[in-house]
Amino acid sequence: MKLFQNIPLLPTKLNRPQQPSYHIPREHLMAGMSKALSCKVTFVTSPPGFGKTTLVGEWLLHGSVPVAWVSLDQGENDMLRFWTYVIAAFHRLYPALGHKSLSLLRTISFSAEEMIDWLLHDLFDIRHDVLLVLDDYHVIDSQEIHSQVAYFLDRMPPHVHLILLSRKQPPIAVGKLRARGQLCEIGLKDLRFSPDEMKAFWLKQTGDTPSEAVMQLLTERTEGWAAGVQLAVLTHLSGHPQALNDFKGNHRYVVDYLMEEVFDHMPDRVRSFLVKTSVAERMNAGLCSALIGRDVQVDELQDMEKANLFVIPLDAERHWYRYHHLFASFLRSKLEGAEASGLHRAACEWFAEQGFTAEAVEHALSAAAYGRAAGLILQSAPEMLKRRELATLHRWLLQLPSAVRERPEMLMIQVWTELLLGRKEQTEVHIHTLHRALQLPAHALTPQLIGVREDLKVVRCFQAMLAGDFPLCYSLLQQMCEEESLPDLQDVPMLFSMGVEMNAGSLPLIRSYYGFRGRIKQAKRYHRLYGSFIDKHGFHDYPFTAYQRAALSEVCYEQNRLDEALRWADDAVRLARLNRVMGAYVPAEIVRSKITRDREGAESALAILREAMAYVNAEDLPGSRWHDLLYAYYIRCRLEVGITEDTGPWMAAASWGKRNEMIGDQDDELLTFIRVLMAGGDIREALLWCAKLMRKAQSSGSIMTEIEVRLCLAQIHHWLDEPHTSLLQLHKALCLGEQEGYLRIFAGKELSALLTRYAEVRRSKYMPDIQSDGVSLSYLQSIVSIAQEGHAEERQSASSVHTLTPREREVLQLMAEGLSNKAIAERLVLSEGTVKLHLHRIYSKLQVNGRVQAVQKANESKI
C-alpha cells in the first residue's frame, strides 16, 4: 500500500483472523449473522472466551462480501491511529479510496468530521455491499472516538455495514436503528455452546464421544462457555479427566482452576516458554528467542497452536501469533515483579532494534524503565507530532514520573502535544513551568536547553496565530527576528524536525488560518517578518520556509505586484519539491499559472497546471485532495476562455453535488462549481450554492471567500437585469477588498463592464446606499484599470467568438433568425431568464451592446 509507505502500520491488525484448528461449525448462528447485510450495524457482544471472533470469521469465510477488518488494541484510543487503521483497511480493498481523508489526518489543523466526510464520500462511490469489522471494540474508552464512530455510522451509505465485536455493549446510541430494524445483535445467550456443539467439540479434540456424565458436567460447569469447554478437553488430554468433577465453583472461576490444571501438567520447558513470552501482545520466533534466551524456531509456535494451547495466528503465513486474552492474563499472573520487568526490558530492546518504536515504548513503560522510555519518546515525538498521533504521545507522557516528565525537553513535547490537542489551559501551565526552568545564567544553559528555549518562542508564536491574537503574533515574531543568533538546528528538538503539513487543503493558502482567513494586510506583515527571521538565520531550505514563500506569493499577486509574486512562487516551488510539502507546492504553482495566464495566455497557464498535476500524481498519488484542487483550478482556467468540454464529468464527480453538502474547506473548488453553473445557465442552483457558501464564509470569518461569492452574485444579478442588487453586491465586495488591499481578485473581462457601470453610478450618485460608506475613488480607479487589462489572448485577438459555448452558439443562431427571447426559450426548453443570461454572456464575449451588433459580428466571424 504505497499510500501508507511512511506510516508505521502493523499489517497483522488488518488481517482477518485465521480459523483455529479446534473450530467447529455453528450453523444456527450463520443465519443470525446473515442479517448483518441488511442492517447498518451489528453488535457481537459477550465476555471473553465465547467465540465472538471465531464466529464472525467463520461467517465471513462462507460469504463473498469484501471485508475491511481492524483488530483494535489500547493504542487505537488515539484518534489518528484509529482512523488511520480504518482507512487502511478500506484502502486494502479499494486502492483509490482514502487519499483525501488520510492526507487530512496528517495536517496540523483539521476537523475530524471533515476527515470522516471524505472517507464517506469515497465509500459512496462503491456500488456493492462492503463490511467494516472492528474487533475488540471494548478497548476503546475514548469518548471522542465513540462520538466519531456514531457520526460515521449515522452517515454511512446503505451498502456499508459495520460490525463491532466487544466484551460489553458499545456506548453508541442505536435506539433509532433498533426501532427501524437496522440493528443486528448477537449476545451471550446466542454464543453459548449447545450440548450438541459441546459434544462435537469434544469428539473433534479427543476422538471419543463424551459420556452422558461428562456432558452433564460440561453443561453444569461451563454453561456453554467455549473457553471452558476447551480447557476441560485439555485437562482430559493431560491425564486429569476428573478435574471438572472436582471443581465446585461456577464458570467465572473455571478459567483459573482449569488453566492451573492444564499448566501444572506441562513440561517445565513449555511452562517457562509460555510464561516468559506472555509479556508480549504479539510474538514471533525472533522475539521469543530474545525473551527466553535461546533460539526459537517457527515450528515451536505452530506446534503450540496445533496443541490448542490458546495460541492464535495473526497472519496466513503463521509468522506472528498472540495468546488468547484469558490465557495471557493467567500466564502473566505467574510472573514475579522483577522477572516481569526484565522481560519487558528485553522486549523493549528487541522491538526498538526492529524499528517498532511504539511497542518498544510500551514495554519500557511496563518495565518502569522511564529513562529508556523518555529517550524513545524524545526520538519518536517529531514524527508522531507530524502524523498527529497526539493521544498516544500524551498517554505515554502522563505515565512518566513527574521528575522525568518535567525535564525541559520532555515538557516541550508535552506543550506541542497539548497545543495541538487544543488543551489551552494545560499548555499555558506547562509554558510557565518551562519559563521558570529556563531562568538560568547563560553559562548554565546547555545546547539542549537553548534549543528548548528557541522552540518555546516558536510554539508561543504559533499558539498566538491559532488563537487569532495577531498583535501578540507580530510581537513574538519581531522578538525572534531581533535574536542575534540561534543554536545549531540539531539542538532544537521540535521546530525544525517536525515538518508538519501546515495546509489542511485550503486554496489559496492565505484563505486559511495561515493567511489569517484572507486578511492579507495581516498576512503580509506576518510573513514579511517571518521572512526576515528566515533570512537572518539562514533557514532557506526548510519546509516551513516553503509555506512562507507560497503565502507571500499569494499576497503579492493579490496586491498586483506580479514580478515579486513570481519570485516568491518560484522559490516556494523549489523548496516544496525539495521537502515534499504539497500544501506549499500546489498554491505556489497556481500563482505561477495565474501570472503566466495574464502574461502569456491560457494555454501556457494550463501547461503549468498539467505539469503540476503530473508531479502531484507521482509524489502524492492521484486522487489526493491536492490533485483535485489543481484540477478544479484547471477547469476554472479553461472556463475563463470559454472552454467547457471538461466540466460535465468534473461536475458529476463533485462531492457536494452527490450529497448536497460541503465537506470542510472546499471554498475554492465550490467557487469553480458555482462558475460552471453560471456558465451553463443554471442560475437557480448557482444562487443556492452561493447562499450556502456565503453563510459558511461569514460564520468562519473568511474574507476572501465572501468577496468571491459577492462577485459571483453581482454577475448573476447583472445577467438577471437586477442592476440595483448587482451593484450592491459589487459594492460590498469592493468595501471588503479595499479594507484588505485586494486588487487582482477583481481582474477579469466579465467584471470590467460591471465595474465601469459601478463607477458611473458612483459619479452620478444614483444609488445612495453605495455612497454612505463608499469605496475610495483612487481604489476604484486601480480596480477598473486592472479589470480592463484582460488576459493575453483577449488582447491578442480582436474576436472572442471562439469562446462561445455550444448553448450560446444555439442562442446566437436563433437570435440571428429573428426569434424573440420567449420564442428562443420555448425552442430550447429554457426559461426566459436563462435566455437573458446567455444573451448577456454573448454580448460580453463578443464585446457588443445588443442583438444587431452581435449578429453582425457573428457574420463577420463566419459563424
Q: What features would you highlight for this structure?
A:
single chain, 863 residues, mainly alpha, Rossmann fold, five-stranded parallel beta sheet, two-stranded antiparallel sheet, globular
* Total number of beta strands: 7
The strands making up the biggest β-sheet line up spatially as 2-3-4-1-5
What is the mean pLDDT?
A: 84
Q: How far from one another are the termini?
A: 53 Å
CATH class of the domain at 2-191: Alpha Beta
Rg from Cα: 33 Å
CATH fold description of the domain at 2-191: Rossmann fold
What is the number of helices? Answer: 46
The CATH superfamily of the domain at 2-191 appears as: P-loop containing nucleotide triphosphate hydrolases
List low-confidence stretches. 489-497, 791-800
What percentage of amino acids are in beta strands?
A: under 5%
Major sheet, described briefly?
Answer: 5 strands, parallel
Overall helicity: 55-70%
